[in-house]
Write a structure and sequence with these properties.
binds magnesium ion; Rossmann fold; 35% helix; four-stranded antiparallel β-sheet; six-stranded mixed β-sheet; 2 domains; single chain; 7 helices
């Protein structure tokens, strides 16, 4: 049996809204992600997906509950938990190569691992763009560089917060394939936040559906058909229909009653 990589137990996160009232972004979240698993989190805007990912990253702390990675409590950010944002967040003043090397330099291990830079550059298909600056490459390429910048730290888990959200559909499909290729090659545990149902089905072992106010996990679905998955295939389309129905039900609110 595989090890549990990430374990989220009874996690609640309450923010304060602009009026000073409590805003329950997450209520009693329980989630286990196994080592090497690819899990997608899907749900409408504002249901707490980013909040959950930030907690797993150690960028924030919950009011209640615990989060662990390989049994160790998550208290602060660590290169063990890579984070890729919707906007790539590359350093604009550094070349692609130097962006990818940034983590190694910060940890003062660049000298020993110099060779890794070209390895990870190749892994994401950016050979030939070593000396380019972020503004000189496309959005899809910048996201690949951001993924390489995280992966070079050999994280146990890669957290991806809608990394393909800002890309056109061709670039998006291309990056999805690249992500699958990397996942198969490296076996990194992946947790992907997306609002794209097709993307979740195409990539994941398991899909977690969240519902808002308060943010909760409403459903977990296993995707057990083999890769490569065909977006027009019967299994794909059936699962797509099931998920869309669940998301639709999740967002349906009781109609307000009016008395005149
Ligand atoms: N720092 C914050 N302070 C107050 N409210 C926040 C903060 N961050 C997020 N929220 C609120 O918490 C809820 C969940 O947000 P978020 O996790 O960003 O959702 P998602 O990523 O699913 O769109 C939203 O209602 C959002 O407005
Ligand atoms: Mg978000």
């Amino acid at each position: 049996m595989s090890k549990n990589a990430v374990e989220v137990t009874g996690v609640t996160r309450i923010y304060t809204d602009v009026h000073g009232n409590p805003l329950e972004a997450l209520r009693d979240i329980n989630l286990t992600v196994n080592e090497g698993e690819f899990v997608s989190i899907i749900g409408s805007s504002g249901c707490g997906k980013t909040t959950l990912l930030r907690l797993i990253a150690g960028l924030d702390r919950p009011q209640a509950g615990t989060l662990t990675l390989n049994g160790e409590i998550i208290e602060k950010p660590s290169p063990e938990r890579g984070y890729v944002f919707q906007q790539h967040g590359l350093f604009p003043w550094l070349t692609v190569e130097k962006n990818i090397a940034a983590g190694l330099k910060a940890r003062r291990i660049y000298r020993q691992h110099k060779g890794d830079v070209s390895e990870y550059l190749n892994l994401v298909g950016l050979e030939g763009f070593e000396r380019s600056y972020p503004h000189q490459i496309s959005g899809g390429m910048a996201q690949r560089a951001a993924i390489a910048r995280s992966l070079i730290n050999r994280p146990a888990v890669l957290l991806l917060d809608e990394p393909m959200g800002a890309l056109d559909s061709f670039t998006r499909a291309d990056l999805q394939d690249k992500l699958l290729e990397i996942w198969k090659a490296n076996g990194t545990t992946m947790i992907l936040v997306t609002h794209d149902v097709d993307e979740a089905i195409y990539l994941s072992d398991r899909i977690v559906i969240m519902t808002p106010r308060p943010g909760k996990i409403s459903e977990e679905l296993i995707v057990d058909f083999p890769h490569p998955r065909h977006r027009g295939g019967v299994e794909f389309l059936n699962l797509r229909r099931v998920i869309l129905e669940k998301l639709h039900l999740a967002s349906a609110r009781p109609q307000p009653e009016y008395t005149i």
